[in-house]
């Protein structure tokens, strides 16, 4: 078994609230590792609405969602958090008082004195296309994300979709595939115009194929695809021989494994917390941001920021049981300013 990665605090979810928690915990000398299923930090802000303006961050009259994420990353830099992206936390086990063993779907193990759940609406999960029997091929020859590009080298790849993910992976995998087809149901794309232009250039050079239509069924054996049967928009059928199918139909949010962590839930989808420190029913496990519930809760980023600051105070008690916590302002404390690297 892998050696566990030891840390003071393990943060599940690198959305805005998880990121700001690094700052509040860092001011109190606690080191953090963060795990997120996505391939980038920023949670909903980065994944769902990066270019939308936000007007209700205190003291910031206007920013974009991605601008906020970038600013948070700058703000937490002095504390050197470690990110583990494209990993989903599957299990949390209590092994001490408090000490937790956390395992990801990639088999990575962590031991943390405190766990802070900032998992938002739960895990972003890919939307499965309505192709009969597709489950039998998943993780063998149907993939909803690309974890290692090299796994697709010299393969006949069929990418389905018309958004940024479909176009980005078309451009990235075209040079290493033995053959690549992009299949989309119409000739309009939702992806960045620059990506669409680059994709069309590859089509023009004969390096990839672009086909309009939809996959209606798959043929293959033991989870290995041999061909996809495609229905053209005029109703006619034809097949595309392929070794790997990558459908990019967007993401939905599901609570996911959070439901199995032995923590009391409200209505099966939110984690009730008390409001002095936002601790859950399990001492040492905190929940902040969109995932938690208490009377009057608002799913606003600023509320999650407040929750992070109070959770950090109690986390300090678990991480440094013998140390007294002295309340300080960043404006006047030279020790806090040293931690921030501004003195
Ligand atoms: C279109 C839109 C506009 C919005 N506008 C505003 C606004 O103007 N102002 C405002 O305050 N709020 C706004 N919100 C709400 C705001 O985005 C959320 O309140 C905020 O993102 C919550 O932050 P979070 O860190 O709690 O969770 P999230 O941003 O949801 O991040 C949670 C992260 O946890 C990860 N995760 C979940 N489960 C696991 C697991 N098991 N293992 C590993 N990782 C996991 C997810 O992948 C995700 O990245 C808006 C939301 C939307 C959708």
- Shape descriptor reads elongated
What is the β-strand count? 20
| Main pleated-sheet profile | 7 strands, mixed
Distance between the termini: 43 Å
User: Gyration radius, to the nearest Å?
Assistant: 23 Å
The helical percent reads: 10-25%
What small ligands are held by the chains? flavin-adenine dinucleotide
- Low-pLDDT ranges: none
Number of helices: 7
Beta-strand share of residues: 25-35%
- Summarize model confidence as the mean pLDDT: 94
- Structural class determined from secondary elements: alpha/beta
Task: Characterise this structure.
This protein is elongated. Helix content is 22%, strand content 29%. With 343 residues, the protein is of the alpha/beta class. The longest helix is centred in the C-terminal third of the chain and has 19 residues. It has seven helices and 20 strands. The site of flavin-adenine dinucleotide has 38 residues, from α1, β2, α2, β9 and α6.
Report a brief summary of the structure.
The chain has helices spanning 16-27, 43-47, 65-76, 164-173, 193-204, 301-319, 334-339, and strands at 5-12, 32-36, 53-54, 63-64, 82-85, 89-96, 99-104, 109-117, 123-126, 156-160, 179-184, 209-212, 214-221, 224-231, 237-241, 244-247, 251-254, 271-272, 285-287, 292-293.
């Amino acid at each position: 078994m892998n050696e566990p990665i030891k840390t003071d605090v393990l943060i599940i979810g690198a959305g805005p609230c998880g990121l700001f928690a690094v700052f509040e915990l860092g001011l109190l000398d606690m080191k953090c590792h963060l795990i997120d299923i996505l391939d980038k930090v920023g949670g909903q802000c980065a994944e769902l609405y990066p270019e939308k303006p936000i007007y209700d961050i205190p003291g910031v009259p206007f920013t974009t969602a991605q601008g906020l994420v970038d600013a948070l990353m700058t703000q937490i830099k002095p504390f050197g958090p470690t990110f583990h992206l494209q990993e989903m936390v599957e299990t949390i086990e209590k092994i001490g008082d408090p000490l937790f063993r956390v395992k990801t779907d990639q088999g990575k193990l962590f031991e943390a004195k405190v766990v802070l759940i900032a998992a938002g609406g739960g895990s972003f999960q890919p939307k499965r296309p309505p192709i009969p029997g597709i489950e039998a091929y998943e993780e063998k020859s149907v993939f909803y994300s690309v974890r290692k590009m090299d796994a697709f080298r010299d393969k006949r790849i069929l990418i389905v979709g018309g958004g940024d993910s479909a176009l980005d992976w078309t451009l990235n995998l075209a040079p290493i595939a033995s053959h690549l087809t992009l299949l989309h149901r119409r000739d309009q794309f939702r992806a960045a115009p620059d990506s669409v232009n680059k994709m069309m250039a590859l089509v023009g050079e004969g390096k990839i194929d672009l086909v309009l239509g939809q996959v209606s069924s798959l043929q293959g054996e033991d989870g290995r695809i041999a061909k996809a049967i495609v229905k053209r928009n005029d109703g006619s059928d034809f097949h595309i021989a392929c070794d790997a199918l990558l459908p990019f139909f967007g993401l939905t949010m599901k609570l996911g494994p959070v439901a199995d962590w032995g923590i009391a839930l409200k209505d099966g989808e939110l984690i009730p917390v008390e409001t002095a420190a936002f601790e859950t029913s399990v001492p040492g496990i905190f929940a902040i941001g969109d995932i938690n519930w208490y009377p009057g809760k608002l799913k606003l980023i600023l509320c999650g920021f407040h929750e992070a600051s109070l959770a950090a105070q109690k986390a300090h008690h678990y991480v440094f049981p013998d140390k007294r916590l002295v309340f300080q302002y960043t404006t006047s404390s030279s020790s806090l300013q040293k931690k921030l690297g501004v003195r």
